[in-house]
Each structure stands twice: as C-alpha cells, then as structure tokens.
Amino acid sequence: MADLRVRKGRDKKQRHDSLTTIKALPNEVFVEIVAKVASCSIFDLCKIKLSCKEFRHAAEEDYVYQHASIEKFALVPLPWFTDEKETSFLNRCRESGNLQISYREGMVQYFSSFNEKSGLENLKRAALEGHDEAKYVYSMLLMCCEDESKRKLGFDLFCSLKTSTCIRRCRKRVKSFIKSMWVNNPVVRNQELALCRSSTCDISGRLQKLSRRWSSLVEDEDDEGIGVSCEYCDGDYELSLFCKMFEI
C-alpha cells in the first residue's frame, strides 16, 4: 500500500509538472498549435478548445480563423440550411481574411451572383496569397481576356501553378464547385485569341484537331495535359478544359 501511495504521488507530481510546463509556453505557441489543428479539421479544433483554457483562449485569435479549414461546410451555403453557430463561424473566418472564404465567395459572386468585380477581386486576393484553386480560376479568367498584358499575367500564373501543385487536382475541385452552383456568367473563350500563335509549332494543328473531340477528352481528364512540348499549347489545352466546364 505504501508503494502504491508513493507511485500515485509521483504520477500526480509528473502531471502537475507537465501542466506547469505547458502553461509556461508563450501565447504565440498556443495560437500556432491551434491554427495548425484548425487548418486540418474543424472538429479537432472544437476538441482542442475543450482541453484547457490556454487553448480555448488561443482559439479565439484571428490568426486561427484565418487558417481554419472549411472543407466540411457546403461549397455554397444556403441561408435556410445554415444554423446560427455555423453562420457566426463563417463570418469570423471572413473577417479574419480566410482564403477559402475569399475563394468560395469569389466563385459565387463572379459566376452566379452577377457581381463580377467583387468576385474577381476575391479570386485575385486568394490567388496571389497562395490558394491553389483560386490561382487556377484566376489564371484561366485572365487568359480569356483580350488585353495582352492580362493574358500574359494569367499564363505566368498558370505556369507557376503547374510547377508547384497538381493541375488535375485543381481542375477537378474547381469543376466540382462549378457544378454545385447555378451558373449565370459562363466563360466563353474567343478561339481567335489562342496563346500559341506559332506557325511552325507542330502541336498547334494537332490541338485544332483535338478541339473537335473535347467532349470525350473532358470525360477522361486524368492526364496532366496531352503530352505537348509547347507550353503555350498546354495553356490553350487547359483553357479549353476550363471553358468546357460551363457547357451543359
């Protein structure tokens, strides 16, 4: 019995020492930990808030809401299906500059709500701050412009995205988003504004032939392109796939 009491006392002291060590951490560390958790799972964020008051207080920082994942929320929330707590959480994320919120609202504003200016600004902000799907959409929209400088910027963004992430994943996620909302402002490409204007490019003619078969190609778009060596033709190909998303 004496040994048991000693062991219990030792365990209690170790727990107390561990708790004291945690409490001694600066608040910035708590905030960083909670933000990391929030970026992975909103459910785990709720759990960590219940663990101790330090984590609970850290969870109220704007930095946490800025990085919180909203993957489990509907892409296009409907007011009559959104409860008060969910609305409050999403509003806090918006006020804190959450990039996922900017991307989602930009998509709805630009393609559905007849608010192209605000939509493009939200997509631009999310894209330039590192949101992959926003960068994909924003680059495609710029490449559709008649202004040569904007098309060049869009192409450069597209190229930078290709070097840093999976284009196929971005394309599929964007396509899923577009199919989930009512599109009132579809993207129609001017075929005269092809990125590749080379008369000697051996891929250009091949792409023109393939353009007649986009329907079958889009149904099987698991490739990362069509193996073209010309980067401008690759951009034309991706832009065609993007525009095809808006066809009924």
Key terms:
single chain; 248 residues; mainly alpha; 14 helices
The number of distinct β-strands equals 0
The topology string of helices and strands comes to HHHHHHHHHHHHHH
Total helices: the number is 14
Q: In terms of structural class, how would the helical and strand content be classed?
A: mainly alpha
**CA(first)-CA(last) distance:** 77 Å
| Average predicted local confidence, pLDDT | 81
C-alpha-based Rg, rounded:
24 Å
What about the largest sheet?
Answer: none
Task: Indicate the low-confidence ranges by residue numbers.
Answer: 213-220
| Strand residue content | under 5%
- What percentage of residues falls in helices of 4 or more residues? 55-70%
Judging from the principal axes of the Cα atoms, what is the shape? elongated
What is the secondary structure topology, with strand pairs?
Elements: H1 2-23, H2 27-40, H3 42-49, H4 53-58, H5 62-67, H6 84-95, H7 99-111, H8 116-128, H9 132-143, H10 148-164, H11 167-179, H12 204-210, H13 214-219, H14 231-244
Helix pairs in contact: 2-3, 7-8, 8-9, 9-10, 9-11
What's the gist of this structure?
This protein is mostly helical and 248 residues long. Helices cover 66% and strands 0% of the residues. The chain is built from 14 helices and no strands.
Textual characterization of the structure:
The protein has 248 residues and is mainly alpha-helical. The chain is built from 14 helices and no strands. It has helices spanning 2-23, 27-40, 42-49, 53-58, 62-67, 84-95, 99-111, 116-128, 132-143, 148-164, 167-179, 204-210, 214-219, 231-244. The chain is elongated and about 70 Å long. Mean pLDDT is 81; it is low at 213-220.
